[in-house]
Design brief:
The chain is an alpha+beta fold and about 280 residues long. The chain contains seven helices and eleven strands. The longest helix is centred in the last third of the chain and has 70 residues.
């Protein structure tokens, strides 16, 4: 805040003021050039920009009786309208100090309602709750709390050591779980590959067997088609070959060679026929 006592004054665009005459509120002063009566009149000027304000570090006790140190930061600005500018002057003596003390008090209360584990992960929730509480009181002072941030939550050293060990153990447990999962998946993949290979070999064997069966079927069909009706002629040809090789007697007819073979001796019908043709009586 600044006070103007000179006859001529200038307010910047980010400033608002109130003019007092003989100690009483006279009017609301907007930015720009103006004049006043020295000694009888003064102007109190308020900066309406956002003010960045620290919440000093302090020790707080959580719901489970753990002492931690916390601090934060907040952004506060006076409302620019006439009524609220008057409140910043007449409802509070030092609004910055008042807001800071209010924030410290309520910060202790916020952490006192939470256990340590909850407080470590509830920064945003604590900040929103603190902002809502501060605005309830700040409205009476013509102020607006725009934002609150919790900057530091510092547990004792022994708590931090225990948390570090717990985190390390958790990381190791996760690593072992991932390793076991990877090994299991690799084993499953290998098992699947073996099953697929066995299935492929089985299918190949089936295909080979089916091919052989098809070949046998085709051979049988060919034999039935080309050899069943000519089996007797084929046998006769074989007998003729044997007869010629063994100097067996044969009969030549108009239809060609018509041998009747007999291993060791000729049948009677053939011998009688041969003897008759040779002019010898049959035995």
């Amino acid at each position: 805040m600044r006070i103007i006592r000179s006859a001529m004054y200038t307010l910047q665009p980010y400033e608002r003021g109130i003019q007092e005459t003989l100690g009483q509120y006279w009017r609301f002063v907007m930015p720009g050039l103006g004049f006043q009566i020295p000694i009888a009149q003064i102007i109190r000027v308020r900066d309406i920009r956002e003010h960045t304000m620290d919440i000093p570090p302090q020790a707080v006790i959580t719901k489970d009786n753990v002492e931690i140190r916390v601090d934060g930061i907040m952004w506060v600005r006076p409302s620019p309208d006439e009524e609220n500018i008057k409140r910043t002057f007449y409802n509070i003596d030092d609004w910055k100090r008042a807001v800071t003390q209010l924030a410290m008090t309520n910060l202790r209360q916020e952490f006192g309602d939470l256990e340590l584990d909850e407080s470590l992960v509830a920064r945003e929730r604590i900040a929103d709750s603190l902002k809502a509480v501060l605005n309830q009181f700040a409205d009476e002072w013509g102020l607006v709390v725009s934002k609150v941030e919790i900057m530091l939550i510092d547990p004792p050293e022994d708590i931090k050591m225990a948390m570090h060990k717990q985190k390390t153990a958790e990381q190791e447990r996760r690593a072992m779980r991932l390793l076991a999962t990877g090994e299991f998946e690799a084993a499953e993949q290998q098992k699947l590959a073996m099953i697929q290979r066995a299935e492929g070999e089985r299918q190949a064997a089936i295909n080979v067997a089916e091919g052989k069966a098809e070949a046998i079927r085709l051979v049988n069909q060919a034999a039935q088609k080309y050899f069943v009706g000519n089996a007797q002629a084929l046998k006769q040809m074989e007998m003729t070959e044997i007869a010629l090789r063994d100097n067996t007697k044969v009969v030549i007819t108009e239809q060609g060679i018509s041998p009747t073979l007999l291993l060791g001796s000729l049948p009677v019908s053939v011998e009688s026929r041969l003897g008759h043709e040779a002019g010898q009586p049959p035995e």
